[in-house]
Every structure is written in structure tokens, then in C-alpha cells.
Description:
single chain, alpha/beta, Rossmann fold, Alpha-Beta Plaits, four-stranded antiparallel beta sheet, 6 helices, binds ribulose-5-phosphate
Amino acid sequence: MSQDAMKKQAAAAALAYVKGGIIGVGTGSTVNHFIDALATIKHQIEGAVSSSEASTARLIQHGIPVFDLNAVGELSLYVDGADETNAQFQLIKGGGGALTREKIVAAASQQFVCIGDESKLVSVLGAFPLPVEVIPMARSYVARELVKLGGTPIWREGFMTDNGNVILDVRHLEITDPIHMEQQINNLAGVVTVGIFALRPADVLILGTPAGAKTVTKA
Ligand code: 5RP
């Protein structure tokens, strides 16, 4: 079974968590499958809060109303993908560059359901280059600080986030204490958001596998 078919399975399984109201929607290829699945039950929901311009466009294409987060209260559900997850559902996100808005919508939601294919589950975070969104004038300074932390930052050249910032993808980090590293990198002047989601991890993990979608909840 292809990786994309496994992502599609996980996305379909996430529909079980949709209980109406306004749904927080993430970004990426797995979430694109979720948006397509959500469209089949769109009469059961009020609409969505989106984490990126790309997801907003897809939601609107399907006729799903998109609300500003400031216009709605706390969300009951957020569904998003991840680049990596560990067994504690702490994540690396931002492969698609939408990490800041994703972190905001995750923080504003009661339940975070993370969807992906089985390859996303790792024992230690960090094989996937860690995305860090940075204010453009701070790019070189933040890169030097990331080197001091043991990483090798690479500027994602030619890419601008929905917020007008740049991304540094940091290789060679073995993230054994995700909460500490999230706080450490977030504290660097000029960093908007680091793609470690450990202070607010996912609550439910749905992984597509050749044997079907597997749902894991926290003990
Ligand atoms: C975007 C993200 C995505 O959730 C992450 O990159 C996973 O993407 P995909 O579902 O395409 O594998 O964090 O900023």
C-alpha cells in the first residue's frame, strides 16, 4: 500500500472525531485528504478554522465556511498531520511551512487529533529536519545560535511563510528532551515558532498502516 493511501485511511478515520461545530484544520497532504473527507459530511458542521492559505483555499473550494479564529471561541477539535511523532505524541511539524498558525490553532483546541502514515512514528524526534520560522532580519543570527545548540540550519530559500517570514530547517538534532528544546529555541530573539509541538502535543494519533488505520489514545 502506498504512503498516500495510508494517509488517506488515517484522514478518513479522523472523521469519527468530528461531532459538529467548527473544526480546526491543519495543513499538508494528509490534511488535504481530511478536508476532502470532511466535505462529505459538511452539512453536519458549521465550518472550519484554517491553519494556512492552502487549506483555506481547499476548504472554500469544497463549500466549507472558513472562520477567523478571533471570531470563534475555543475549538473542540483540531485535526492535523505531522512530520514526526514520538510515543508521547510530541511532534515535529512545519514541513509545509505552516507551523505558526498550526501551533496557534492546536493551542486553541480542546482535542488535537494527529493523522499520518505509519512512517511518521519514530523513537526519537530529529531525523526530519526541524523547521523554525524566523523574522527575516534575524535569519543569520538565529542560524548561528542553532549551530551552538548542535544543529545544522539550512535556509529554505525562495520560501516565504503565510506570515511573511523565512524558515530554517535544522538537521542533526537529536531531540531527547522535546519540551526543553521547544522552550530553548522559542526563546531565541527573532524566532517566531519552532516546529516542536511538545508543550501542546497531540491527544490522539491515527496512523495509516497496510492493515488499516490504527488509533492510539493516551493512557
Ligand atoms: C505543515 C505540516 C504538516 O502537517 C506536515 O508537514 C505533514 O505533512 P504531510 O501530511 O504532507 O506528510 O506540519 O506545516
